[in-house]
Write a structure and sequence with these properties.
single chain, about 375 residues, alpha+beta, 3 domains, 3-stranded antiparallel sheet
């Protein structure tokens, strides 16, 4: 039976050892009473550890199998004939189990970085289609929030730019946190097109409208270093739009500009300047992190066999045809029922198909 070096490449073993180390550090950190005092940090660490659990468990099981195989080989070479006979019977089973475990590890490994990201910032913007585009953006946001509730994910509204005339939304920014949230929702980035008879249509004609979705992984503070004093300019102003005297007369809106990248964020959702500043900083950090992540991805593109990364998503990703009750994803051959995706917020089969396809693509790069 080949040892660990033979059944897994060096780059994979190094990656597994690093993940195992991270898992142990997270376990130790979560056991520290001081960690419990910072609920957001403790929750983020728990989600990250849960994302690593399946891979770490499988890797440790493989190491145990290989240790057993080594003992069987030693018994075969020993002088105890009875023990050697027992080892000769058991070794093939252990070898087969180790080979199967190595295959499972490869499948888990190629998505491990994605599973470990437990918080995303999701932005939805109405695209072409006028009022109907705003209604479509509202419907899609509602689908995501209902799916998040089914998955036990936490949803925090960061900014909602509503269109009161017809009930749609021009823009929505929400934070969604939970296990495997990035692994699934990362596939949603792109243009979502809907073909349906709008509520505003009086003659029953089918219209095509779009909205765009951006999904940014929300990094831990240690992953992105921003010099808030020197690299970020801040302006505090009164809020804009409807909201009464307090919104329009009290300086609570916070505008941040990250000078090195040019990223700009404005937050005015709450009446508290401090809350708007905290949300603006989180969104700015996520956008800067996304820029850096894409740079790293570009650098690693030529070394995909040694690196575990995330593919860029195509711009137009999905079409929802209401009259035919069909949802067609550009990346998949199979179709899905609109009633399941939108009406029931049952996105799990769609995400499973996309994850399976992406896993196969990354495995091919080993």
């Amino acid at each position: 039976m080949p040892d660990l070096t033979a059944i897994l490449p060096d780059s994979v073993r190094h990656k597994l050892d690093e993940i195992d180390r991270q898992h142990r550090e997270l376990t130790d950190a979560l056991a520290d009473p001081d960690a419990a005092s910072d609920h957001r940090r403790a929750s983020a660490m728990a989600i990250r550890r849960a994302g690593l659990d399946p891979l770490v468990t499988e890797y440790r099981a493989l190491c145990a199998l290989l240790a057993d195989a080594e003992e069987m080989r030693a018994a075969l070479a020993g002088s105890d004939s009875e023990l050697a006979a027992l080892a000769r019977d058991e070794l093939p089973t252990i070898e087969a189990s180790a080979a199967e475990s190595a295959d499972r590890i490869k499948s888990l490994l190629v998505m491990s970085d994605d599973r470990a990201i437990g918080s995303v910032i999701l932005e939805i913007r109405a695209g072409t289609g006028g009022d109907e585009a705003g209604l479509w953006a509202r419907d899609l946001l509602h689908t995501y929030t209902r799916y998040a509730a089914k998955r036990g994910w936490r949803v925090e509204e960061m900014e909602i730019d509503a269109d009161p005339s017809v009930g749609g939304i021009r823009k929505a920014v929400v934070n969604i946190a939970g296990e495997s949230v990035w692994q699934e929702l990362a596939f949603e980035a792109g243009v979502h097109s809907v073909k349906r008879v709008p509520a505003t249509e009086t003659q029953g004609r089918i219209h095509t409208s779009t909205c765009t979705v951006a999904v940014l992984p929300e990094p831990q503070a240690v992953e992105v270093t921003i010099d808030w004093a020197n690299d970020v300019t801040e302006h505090v102003t009164t809020s804009q739009g409807p909201g009464g005297q307090n919104v329009n007369k009290v300086a609570t809106a916070v505008n941040l500009v990250h000078k090195p990248t040019g990223v700009e964020v404005r937050m005015q959702e709450t009446k508290s300047q401090a809350q708007n500043r905290e949300r603006a900083r989180r969104l700015l950090t996520a956008r800067v992190f996304e820029i850096e992540r894409r740079k790293i991805e570009a650098e690693r593109a030529g070394q995909r066999s040694d690196q575990i990364g995330t593919a860029q998503r195509s711009e137009k990703i999905r079409t929802y045809r209401y009259q035919d009750n069909i949802v067609s994803d550009e990346r998949l051959d199979q179709k899905f029922a609109k009633s399941k995706i939108i009406d029931d917020a049952d996105l799990r089969p769609l995400f499973e198909a996309l994850v399976e396809q992406e896993t196969a693509r990354r495995l091919a790069a080993f």
